[in-house]
Amino acid sequence: MREDEIKKGVQLICDTSKEMYKLYEDKNALIEKLNSLHKEDLAPLEYDYRLKSGPVIDLRKDVLKYLLNGNKLDEQIFDEFILKHRTGKEDKYVSYQNPFSIFHPFITSYGHKPLRDFVERFVDEIIERLKLNGKVSYRYVAFQGAKYSGTDKLWFAISNNKHTSQTEVMQIFVKFQDGIIRYSIRRYDGNGIDIRGPVEKDPTNFDFEAFISFFEENKELILKDEPEEEDSNVPFSYENFGAEFVSDSAKHSEMYVNLPQFPCNIILYGPPGTGKTYNTIDLAVEIITGNNAGHEENKKVFDALREEGQIEFITFHQNYSYEDFMMGIRPDLDEASTLKFRRKEGIFYKICKRAEQNYLQSRNKKNAIRPFKEVFSEFLEPLEKEEVEIEIKMISGKSSFWITEINPSNLSFRKQSGGTSHTLSIDTIQGLYEGTREFTSGLRSYYEPLINELWRRGKQTAAEVPLKRYVLIIDEINRANISKVFGELITLLEEDKRLGAKNELRISIPGEETGFGIPPNVYVIGTMNTADKSIAMIDIALRRRFEFQGYFPDYSKVDQLSGNILKHINNEIYTRKKSADYLIGHGYFMNGTEAPETSKVLQNKVIPLIMEYFSGKTELVEEIFKGSGWSVKYDTEKYCWEIDPQIKQ
User: Fold this and answer.
1) Are 173 and 183 in contact (CB under 8 A)?
2) Which of 179, 198, 425, 486 is the most buried (most CB within 10 A)?
3) What torsion do the CA atoms of 63, 64, 70, 75 make, to the nearest 10 degrees?
4) How many CB atoms neighbour CB 242 within 10 A?
5) How crowded is residue 384: how many other Cβ atoms within 10 Å of its Cβ?
6) pTM, to two decimals
7) Which of 128, 88, 99 is nearest to 31 (CA)?
8) Cα separations in angstroms, 526 against 280, 469, 503
């Protein structure tokens, strides 16, 4: 980067930090800013929010629609919007005390993209100038904030890439706040302690060469900062830094080690009866095992792998939704017949979590843990099998509480003082264990020691864990509304956006999870019937993320009698339709080896399908069979088809 580009970018970030501070402190300034936003920055948000809902999201959608319609906000209208959505849902707004935290996405999501692009190039330039390529990785938090609640500062930290967490890590730390750039060598221990520096500059006297010289003199502190063996005993924790960007120079070579050479996303497409679903069994087994055996043997392996959770099979339909596929909220009646709503994990979410756990274990990642359900079940054994209350020591070590009962939703516990009317949500426990939630409730003092105990039990040993492959088969993938079902997952499906890839991306999903990503050992196999035009075909966004393998009629798989008539029918269909999408597959004839059996196939399966293709025009169907060696006539008195393998004169 040229020095003038750097100075211009630093000036932009410093100016933005001052603006963000003002918007955070002054509601009227925020309203004025929202009124000044361009539609090209707001319109993409409308698309992003289209499939999402919730108290805060619904408020944003209302205000967004109002602005896109050309209206202007004033303080009264602004307050009315907030009051309308907050009333009766105050508990959902605990993290949104300031209006800026609600509406910052209008400003930062798309309007700040040039700023974020500069930061990434700026960090790459620093790493290049300090000759740290391949030795470090970096993270940054922009004005969207670490938890996407908005902030008036932007910071980035560069650290030794041998570390797998941010506990006790030495960093090149740079922060922009209130118009000032502040940089130092810092040790992060939860708060951050400056070891060298800090140096503070305003953009007018910022000198990039002096900036580089400062870090050049101190970079050995970063290079020598390697994790110690005893780090593996540190209690497991997830760090939430918002969007994580890993430099191209970071080490990712282990990501695809020993993975079979198959595309991550495949669609088997073709006309009906060509064996698409049949072949998904063989393909799934080959991806997972690397073996290419016969179908009968593969089917046995397939069934075993489904039992083990490495293969999942679903069929899309027109009512299939994102909530079924990924994550949703479902009503639940507890023992007291009280209506509650629980988080419902979809099939894709579950298989991704299984695969991610194995992926982390296979890389011997120090903070890898065993699956929650496995650890939780072991933890509860004394209570369930022996009816023995489970004692949990409080963090202070001076008192305890006891788990006394379990139901599908909650754990009941007894305090040291004897109080028993208290429960802990199992969904919350799982979220905290997996790092998808944070301690926010007043029961933190009880959740925290419980989670620490589960982490202790779930902590992996250094034993080598083999990398497994996980396959999700989606039959009839084009029968659902693809955009609605996949939502933001469409982006994550790309191989270079998977966990561990150089362009790794994580997203926020319903249920308070802020760091969901798709691991590289998940494979998606879809099937698509090209003749089914009654529903939408695969949209372009999804199409470019899949590789397509065509399946068409194979006449060698049926007997000669069936093969001849099938070939004739397909030639006639292709002549009229000018497309292979409407051919008839060999699968329809796989069970027939004699004329009576073939006649039944024609009568009950093939002719009804051809009638569908040609809008019920019987004369066209009769023409298709002319010259085939079969007499096919429609009886207008009995209203049925007469079929004979001999031509009648």
Assistant:
1) yes
2) 486
3) 30
4) 20
5) 10
6) 0.54
7) 99
8) 8, 16, 25
